Amino acid sequence: MDGYGTFAGYIVKIQYLDDLSGLIPSNNTYGNRWNNCYWGNTQLNTLLENTEAAADGNKNIRWAARIWKNYLWFYALDSWGDIPYSEALRGETSKGGILLSKYDNQKDIYTDVLANMKTIADEMAVGGGTDKIGAGDFLFSGSVAKWQKFCNSIRLRAAMRISAVAPALAKQTIEEICGNPTKYPLIETNDDNAYFFWQGSSPYFEPWYDNKRTRDDHGLSDIFINHLLDTNDPRISAIAKPATKDDTYRGFQNGAAAQPQLNTISRIGAIYRDNPSGFTPYYKSCETFFIKAEAAMLGYNVGITAADAYDKAVRLSMASNNISNDLTDAYLAGKGKWDNTKARIWWEQWVALFKENHEAWCLYRRTGVPTTNYVSLRSIYGTTHTDQPFRLPYPQNQYLYNKAQLDLAVASQGIVDYCWGKQLWWDTRTGVK
After folding, report:
1. What CATH code is carried by the domain that includes residue 360?
2. Residues forming beta bridges with residue 104, ordered by sequence position
3. What string of DSSP letters covers 320-334?
């Protein structure tokens, strides 16, 4: 639960504070994330190879596989920056026998993956798939229409991610998608949310629930709880539990030296952590409208005003947290009232992305929101680094088995202390180190 949730400003440790591995990453931290991306793409390649001879009869499952394949590439790019891509997954002799893959530039890969996703979106718009994806689709239960919406929604997300560094491509992509909702449908209702629901029995418990079964190591951060309180946000009742000592919502500091009195700190809310068959979110419908609101602020033609898109986004987020219409109306008329600023969009998006922690970390690195975020109080780097990690550290297996190529990538990106140095290409913040 450490890592993205901490980097995004949501989650803190309240026990075993001497274990700083999640706060101070090294090449021994988060290697499983790297392995998941490359192992996952290896499996997807196998599926695509095995269905290639009968591709016309397997269009739907091949589209789903290609979408997930490119989703994993975006995830890897947003986590590490430069990665093996053009020479990756080519270790077999028949594929070139490349065992020491070079690292490609993240900008070049990003534009290529965006192009891949457009190709898939255009193919799906034509349609013609007759095969059943099947019960093994745990994300959308075999719904091709939902896979199509997910494809375009990830395109929308990626385009906004690069809007400050590739504005022409971002504008073209977003306007193309929003200008033709029939050809490029989006996730716009909570029924279409990309949620992975877990089986609910060992070893397939929802991960946050699984952690809670035997441990009580995590609470919510002071900056998150304080923001929810300061804005009178009714979602606090879903996101957090009040402290058992005094029924008060209270957060804790990131990386504090001394353990708090445990009954004084808020824990994660029931809908996010107490269900063994709960969900892991990959995309929420509210994100579509937060992106549209920001795009409208940038002058893009997205078919809706920034104010209306913002209102829709907040209402979708409130509904997904089981907040009543009356409380939602009161919030939007009060502290959550639209004020015609991108900052308002970003703060609301930060709250709404809770549990989608990797995406919230991306939002923070792109926008600087939450502005109250801070590096671990116990960071071994002291004042050398004053911000959360810019990237994940490359894994130990790359240091052991692909070191020459890795060293070139580290040098070209100006990486310092595994996670800092030069920022990712779409991270344009200044004054961070």
Report:
1. 1.25.40.390
2. 83
3. HTT--HHHHHHHHHT
Bridge partners of 194, per DSSP, are: 283
- Grouping H, G, I as helix, E, B as strand and the rest as coil, residue 70 is helix
> Is 120 inside any structural domain?
yes
pTM value is: 0.97
For residue 377, count CB atoms less than 10 angstroms from its CB and return exposed for 0-12, middle for 13-18, buried for 19 or more.
exposed
The CA dihedral of 44, 210, 138, 393, to the nearest 10 degrees, is -30
Domain of 44?
4-202+277-421
In a domain, 427, yes or no: no
Give every CB contact of residue 343 below 8 A, 6+ residues apart in sequence.
Answer: 369
Is 161:426 a contact under the CB 8 Å cutoff? Answer: yes
Q: What is the 3-state secondary structure (H, E, C) of 221-232?
A: EHHHHHHHHHCC
Assign 24 a pLDDT band (cuts: 50, 70, 90): low
pLDDT digits (tens, 9 = 90+) for 203-224: 999 999 999 999 999 999 999 9
Tell me the Cα Rg of the chain. Answer: 22
Give Dmax (Cα) for the chain.
65
